[in-house]
Design brief:
alpha/beta; 40% helix; 12 helices; TIM Barrel; globular; 293 residues; eight-stranded parallel beta barrel; 16% strand; 10 strands
Length: 293
């Protein structure tokens, strides 16, 4: 598995990362969660991304982590859902980091993202300053922002974050076109989420009530199919090898899906002509299609 520098930090991350949202819910046992995390390491995946809002995800990683702490680059997301604290307040951020440290059972978290807070929260400054104070205190190595559109652009150019996370996939290229390459040139680590666009090609009819419904619509309008109908391989190779991307995170509860994702990324970038087809198809709609939060 290819490793890359994570921006200007001292961290190195795998080109494919593991999004740990799925392991936080009741249909995945702790034993299954640990087996999936073990499999990620076996495949050379060292970037693990979680959040306080992902059910039991932080807890399950925390019970697995002691034997593997030196083998992984760990990220989580904070700023909301702290009892007794207003969302996006300095208290919510500070206590969110402290609670994550305790749940994950570690002294330092490699990357902590403010999780999709709106632009006005970033501009107000108290949430950002609280996160930076956690860096100064040695609780966090790299401060980051996870989000889209105007808030993402602000975060990427503000000079206060060391990382950003954004949707990057065949049907969601706004940040890729407008923000992420410049962020990488400025020394920010870049995490691409939703590289599979929630796999809308699984559905013959338009899905409802899931993130994939917007992406289903967009792919229909783009009216393209990948070479050899390899949707998963094409999507992952597009995202993981997009300019500026440090790691592309795939969320799954199935080891076979993780194996297939790793095999796709190991194949390397898409051929130039194939990549250009998808970029050109999106460019037709670039003024109308915002990043999906």
């Amino acid at each position: 598995m290819l490793k890359r520098n994570f921006g200007s930090s001292s961290l190195q991350v795998s080109a494919l990362g593991f999004g740990a949202g799925h392991i936080g819910y009741d249909d995945v046992t702790e034993r299954q969660a640990h087996a999936l995390l073990d499999r990620a390491l076996e495949l050379g995946i060292n970037f693990i991304d979680t959040a306080r809002g992902y059910g039991l995800s932080e807890e399950r990683i925390g019970s697995w982590l002691p034997a593997h702490r030196n083998d992984v680059v760990l990220s989580t997301k904070v700023g909301y859902g702290v009892e007794g604290a207003t969302d996006w307040s300095a208290t919510a951020v500070t206590r969110g980091v402290d609670e994550a440290l305790a749940t994950l059972g570690t002294d330092t978290i490699d990357v902590v993202f403010l999780h999709s807070c709106p632009l006005e929260v970033l501009e107000r400054g108290d949430a950002v300053q609280a996160l930076l104070a956690c860096v100064d205190a040695g609780k966090v190595r790299v401060p980051g922002y996870s989000g889209e559109n105007e808030a993402l652009a602000w975060a990427a150019s503000a000079g206060v974050f060391g990382a950003v996370q954004s949707s990057v996939n065949l049907a969601d290229q706004r940040s890729l076109r407008e923000v992420l390459p410049g962020a990488a040139r400025s020394g920010l680590g870049v995490v691409a989420k939703r590289p599979l666009a929630n796999a809308p090609w699984r559905h013959t009819d338009r899905p409802t009530g899931v993130y994939g419904e917007t992406y289903w619509d967009r792919l229909r309008e783009m009216d393209l199919r990948p070479e050899a109908d390899d949707w998963q391989g094409t999507a992952l190779r597009f995202s993981a090898f997009s300019p500026g991307v440090s790691t592309a995170i795939v969320g799954t509860s199935q080891p076979a899906n993780l194996d297939a994702a790793a095999a796709a990324v190991v194949r390397g970038p898409l051929p130039d002509a194939e990549r250009q087809r998808w970029e050109a198809a999106f460019a037709t709609h670039a003024g109308d299609w915002a990043g999906e939060v």
